Amino acid sequence: MDYVEFEKDLIAVLLVVQSVHDKNRLLYKYEQINTDKREPEPVSFHTYYSIVIAKDFDPPSSKDEDAPRKTFRNFDDTTLSILTSPNSYGTHVEVQVDDVVFVGHTLSLENNTNLKSFAVFFVLRAIAKPSVILSYQEMSKRIGTAIRCEEQRANYLNEEYAKLLAVLQQYDIDAADPLNRKNEEGKAKETIEKLYVTMVQQSPLAATLKQIYTDLQASGEINIIINNWLNVSCCLPHRSIALNCPLAIDFAFKVLSNSEQYLKPYYGLLLVIDPSALLNSLPADASSTLTTLVRHLRSSYSMSRLSIETGVPLSQIYSLASHLLYWGRAKIMYPINDENIYIISPDADISKQGSLSKLYRETFQNTSNYPTLQEALAEYSDAVTFYDHLVRNDNESELGRFQCVEWLLRHRLLTQLHYYYYLLLPNDDRNDFTNEYKLTRLPRTRTPLRRNQHSSDAFGVASKSERFSLTSENIDIRENILSINGFEYNMASSPMTNPLSYSSIHNSRSTDTLKTMTGTSHDDVFVPGSVNSSVVTGRGSRQILHYLPHITQALPNESTEYHRRLGFAIKDAKEQQVTDFLRIIKYLDGTYHLEEIASLENMTRLQVSTIIEKFQTIVIRALHCDPNPILQI
241-276 pLDDT, tens per residue? Predict the structure, then answer.
């Protein structure tokens, strides 16, 4: 998978120190000119339906890419010292000059007889995103805090200051010698480079700053030890954001920084690297709880189950998961099970010459029935359950299919869909409900959805004795597309047994009827005809009066007329069924999917599905992905 390349933003690392008897001074700087030009991969496929995947984020031309570096090299040490002079202590600093920005965090040294303040500065291109700048500022703060702690413990910074200052003073003496000046005329650049090489050799702090620059360029992460005592580990979380992530970079950073707020107990955790490699990369003093979590991770486990399996509180599971996500070691997804519905991600790179295609062939060359990535993805062209994929591929092992889905999810090639439910009564003309329904639904899918063996039709199953009625405000039919409250349904590819025809719309409040071509009676898509009847007698009337207080309690914001019509719709159901239905009715507004309803009410998926199936005549469902942004990173 391609990731956003933020190493282009970093130009140099600076160390500036202000002594008690002197002004702010540039003590050390390190920069490296990257002469390697990464050519963007050519897009080898194009159709009217393909999404071209950009292979570079904000790709500058070579001239534009070198311009900020040239600007930085035009600043002498005195100018850099002035630009990085602190106006206050303990705050983030950001200074922009033309196409270069200096970012850092200045720290004061209290009760120090020699040094007053210092800061580690990062020099970036001015087009760096605000969240990238903030990440470098936080990194500067953490590095500076570790240096200050060592200064207080072992006088570390004063010793390094003396070493670097001695090298600089010797350079000034040599530069002032007329003989050296004549011999080295025209070689000032090489002399300065030798100066900073000498600094690295004589000062451990200078060597550490060079390592910081190198590590950030290589991986966006640092893991250093200050004065062989304090460990500092930082990362740029942007480096874990995939290039085809649909979220804006700054918003994705906000989600990563506050990921615990987006986590749910029914979410799962999928590692993007090998578990043994992750365990080996952990420092010696890493939390034992994190090690336990990694050892127990399964792609079929939810976070609530991980909490039970490991004995770790769910809040701590959230904290560890956020840490792994921030460092790009894992991604959030739903636990893999038979009822999940996967389709190809709309931003998936499916080119045969792409890096993912090559990686797939290397990974599954001997373990899958599908030798190419394109053949594996073709299985997920239509929205059917994961179990259906296993059934129609009897010759492939369940383990092999499981591993293949893990790999596809890990590389953001699949998207999971969920059922969202809507309570829809006849003649429901609430404009706010209709608009909300239209906004939350997805566009009509490319292929007709297949129904599960044990699930109900999307619009209910009608018997011959039921009479159906819809107003022209709720239904619209053009050619072969049936639209009910904004939800489009392809009649030509309908899985229903009998094809449908329709009568003309007489006026805005007239009744639209749906007929079967076999000549059966008019069928209302949602509720039996008795609901529309103006006269209710006997047991039905008593049931409505009995349910009305419970309906009012379940839906306190709805009108009395709406409560009455809902009572008509459910009057023939058993009392226990109505009680269960009213328990979940507040979630039937199109914003809760099956997993969330089950989690909020402490029920199983089967229990929720069974309740909804009992009232399928007034509940419709839409299939689309979970909008939670943490699932898109």
Answer: 877 788 899 999 999 999 999 999 999 999 999 999
**In terms of pLDDT, which residue wins out, 601 or 438?**
601
pTM here is: 0.76
405 & 496 share domain = no
Q: Which domain holds residue 109?
A: 7-237
**CB-based contact 69:62 (threshold 8 Å):** no
Please tell me the distance from the alpha carbon of residue 340 to that of residue 579, in angstroms, as a whole number: 28
Same domain, 202 and 92: yes
Residues forming a β-bridge with 512: 470
Asked if 273 and 310 sit in the same domain, the reply is: yes
Mean per-residue pLDDT, 223-229: 94
- Count of the separate structural domains present in the chain: 4
Measured in residues, the chain has a length of 633
Distance from C-alpha of 405 to C-alpha of 299, rounded to nearest angstrom: 10
Distance between CA 87 and CA 14 in Å, rounded? 17
| 133 & 185 share domain | yes
pLDDT in tens, 375-400: 899 989 988 999 887 776 666 677 78
Q: Which helix (H) or strand (E) holds 130?
A: helix 130-154
Amino acid at 415: T
Buried-exposed string 564-598: b where 16+ CB fall within 10 A, e elsewhere: ebbbbbbbebeeeebebbbbbbbbbebebbbbbbb
Which tokens belong to 296?
A: 């127990």
- Of 300, 333, 366, the one marking the end of a domain is 333
